[in-house]
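How it folds:
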Amino acid sequence: MQVKHLEITENMTINEFIKQLDESGVLGAGRIAHATNLLADSIKDPDTQVFLSLAGPMIPGGLRKIVRDLVANKQVDLIISSGANLTHDLVEAFGGNHYKSTGEDDEVLQDSGMGRIADIYTHADDFEVFEEEIQKIFADINQEYKQLSIQEFIYEIGLRIDDDESFIKMAAENNIPIFAPGIIDCMIGLQLWIYTQDHDFILSAAGDMTYLSDCVFKSKHITACMLGGGLPKHYTLASNILTGGIDAGIQITLDRSEGGSLSGAPLEEAKSWAKAKKGSNLVTVIGDATVLFPLIVAGALDKIKI
């Protein structure tokens, strides 16, 4: 079968563009089309649960509303996130923002109270508000509970947020669980440590495992959609090991495989650990998830409408 060359036509829809990528079928075009079709099929299938993992600066990088809408429309069933993405969702929920780089020197940024994530700036003033507000939420939660699992803790935070654009709030309202195994390694974790210096409250990481394993065992089929790698990717894959692995997987990453890190590992490697089933439908898209994931989601949702 020949490679069909791409053709951009007037008033082309996103679905028509993805179809062209599919008909090309090679290199990045083929992988993007594969991922789009797989995500669309997974969302449409009532027997398939979609697990979304978020590593890297997905929320400060512009994906907050996309994740929020997927949650609001129940097009994902479970989220496993880095603590940082939760923190940045809360920064905006409390009135803060993320800002475009102006090219300043990093030492100048430090003096002016700005932090940098690549070409994204955050302002110390926004984090001061975050610290004040999250401490109030901790205190309110602590009035009812002395110990919670991480997932229960995030759920309780979501119930106390007054921002409809927050994916944490939307997940709580729609009973979509959020897991964050590395939550201590972020500003939420730092503030929680500060809070527990003079308050009786325990956050249980092991407490998540029963609920997470129940989610896996109750699912007929699981498609994992993994943005970036790291701990969220591993937790997503490892949670499925007791059932022989995920049935399908989409990975969007910029990391390389040569160093042996999980972040850059091809998804096929997961089969050797029984984290992906034999015969599972797997696709790795190499590139920036803040660009490619919106394209894939737009294509998938457009395909579902047809």
